[in-house]
Amino acid sequence: PSIPRHTNRLINEKSPYLLQHAHNPVDWYPWGQEAFDKAKKENKLIFLSVGYSTCHWCHVMEEESFKNKEIGEIMNKNFVCIKVDREERPDVDKVYMTFVQATSGGGGWPMSVWLTPDLKPFVGGTYFPPEDGVHRVGFRTVLLRIAEQWKENKEALLENSQKILEALLHMSEIRVQAQESPPPAKEVMATCFQQLSNSYDEDYGGFSKSPKFPTPVNLNFLFTYWALHRTTPEGARALQMALHTLKMMAHGGIHDHIGQGFHRYSTDQHWHVPHFEKMLYDQGQLAATYSRAFQISGDEFFANVAQDILLYVSRDLSDQAGGFYSAEDADSYPTTASEEKREGAFCVWAAEEIRALLPDPVEGATEGTTLGDVFMHHYGVKETGNVNPMKDPHQELKGKNVLIVQCSLELTAARFGLELGRLSALLRESRRRLSAARAQRPQPHLDTKMLAAWNGLMISGFAQAGVALAKQEYVSRAAQAAAFLRRHLYDPTSGRLLRSCYRGKDNTVEQSAVPIQGFLEDYVFIIQALFDLYEASLEQGWLEWALQLQHMQDKLFWDPKGFAYFSSEAGDPSLLLRLKHDQDGAEPTANSVTVTNLLRAACYSGHMEWVEKARQILAAFSERLQKIPIILPEMARASAIFHQTLKQVVICGDPQGEDTKEMLRCIHSVFSPNKVLMLADGDGAGFLYRQLPFLASLERKDGKATAYLCSNFACSLPITSPQELRGMLCP
């Protein structure tokens, strides 16, 4: 490799995204005091660029502008340039994204924002082309104009930035209004269901025409809505909407049929042509959602998809120390000889490649049929490529095919005169060959940063799949990852979480010189993961840690005046706003998940002030929940659970006993969104017995494993029959 011409301060960072920019001619600084001091001392504006390592347009802007020597000179002369990885610093990202969305009506990455030396934003946008075009002003022009403005109109700019900040503060505030009580859950659920139903695509599933995102928060809302309205037509429709969406996604090109796992989103209505990056948070949430779909429907199809996701994560996103990596890039070199990367190159196929890999004649099929014919028919492969040119503006996929299942196994079998079992075997063998061929291609970049929050989501995925699919190895993998978090992303002396760690040289796990402290979402998703892991493994140590973290979360992030939790802690002078996020998007927002966490924590500890906090969060978001619950489906779901009150399902029994295991299997086979499971093993000195004195009064009936359904710590009569228990869990 040639020796790089330029090296800037990002060379000392650990984030793969920052390291990608370490050899730009731009004199980049990481976010921090050194850059802020330089801006103040030299009285220079700051140019802030925010992105992440698997962001396609971030790569484009780097290639066009940040690697351009002349543009680099303009940037270095007039600005202090700061690069931020939004996955490391979601707090910084959110403050300035709030500004960009408010002033330009849109947002996204790369985000480009110009700040005064005291960090107040005054101009912002996303991607800029390098030079002026017909419809867009170029990056070079914008840089020169802003530098000119600062010279000529400094006072006006400063005054304006102060006004902007005040408006943002006012606009972004979420607090309890006078009414102080949570909104009525029945209405919130009904409105959210109606809004989802109105935006539902009857043909292809999903909740928009295009682009289409795999929003697990919507599907989880629908499952809970169904569970609470099983006998009504609306309940049936909710379940149908969720299951149809999951089926269409699994058949679509958004699902990697050869390499497993799911891509980020689909650019079209049919789930066909995706943006090809694969994110850990999608895999974690989708593994849980497909497992739930199996639990509800009993259809093996959904169990297979969950296993497919977990295979991908175990193989491609797992660190040997137990943590999970963040993402895999969309762009890669088509061949080892290629000069430039292309989006999707690792995943797409030309028809002749497939024919060459699958030339075998298929015995018993219609005369002259090859394996390639069967495979190409089933996966929608066309000789000239199956990608609509409208969905491929840069012609990167011309002549290529994105695999999509276009007809059922039954139809393909009938078309070629094959029996189903035989067809499945032929397709399996074909996928294996394509997989081996694909392994020879240059791999996309892997972002080996390990984030606490996303690891939490993935642990929940493994734990919930382990329970629903009755696979102990998934529960063990979840426990291994939780132990990793405890070892590498938790400081036992302070009791606090850290945000991130990194794969270092020789596969060691490294920490940055100044570790980034955990944000609200890190606490919330890990607490959720630990509750899920306890229910799957019944190891009380995970519960104990979850409750300690919940106390710490309260201390660092709770807003005692306006209620609910801030996303970041107080006391960072470089953060202009302490925000509360108010949308369940690709990931659920932390305040939504924490409502259910708090209710579960109260059930395991008897601390009723946690129920009160859950009530106060719902009150703080009351107006949004009543008007537009479709932007907060996870919080709408939590509001129903809050009003239902959680059922404590207590099993008194020996954890190793067959009768106890049978009771647990029964509980795990039922989708019951408002249950909390605990095992009373008779050890009075154990953590749960110390927390919950009422457990001491529950006993095994006739020496058999016995279940009790308790609400607010008052319990039903003892149940020793799994069938009877199932009846009580599915009213």
Provide structural commentary.
This protein is α+β, with helices and mostly antiparallel strands and 731 residues long. Among the domains are: 163 residues, Glutaredoxin (3-Layer(aba) Sandwich); 94 residues, no CATH class; 82 residues. 47% of the residues lie in helices and 10% in strands. It has 27 helices and 21 strands. The chain has a five-stranded mixed beta sheet, sandwiched between helices. Strands 19-18-20-21 form a four-stranded mixed beta sheet, sandwiched between helices. A three-stranded antiparallel beta sheet has the order 8-9-12. It starts with 15 loop residues before the first helix and ends with a helix.
**Order of strands across the widest beta sheet?**
1-3-2-4-5
The beta-strand count equals 21
**Helix count from the secondary structure assignment:** 27
Q: Over all CA atoms, what is the radius of gyration?
A: 27 Å
Which whole number gives the mean pLDDT? Answer: 95
Kindly list the characteristics that best describe this protein.
alpha+beta, single chain, 21 strands, Glutaredoxin, 5-stranded mixed beta sheet, 27 helices, 731 residues
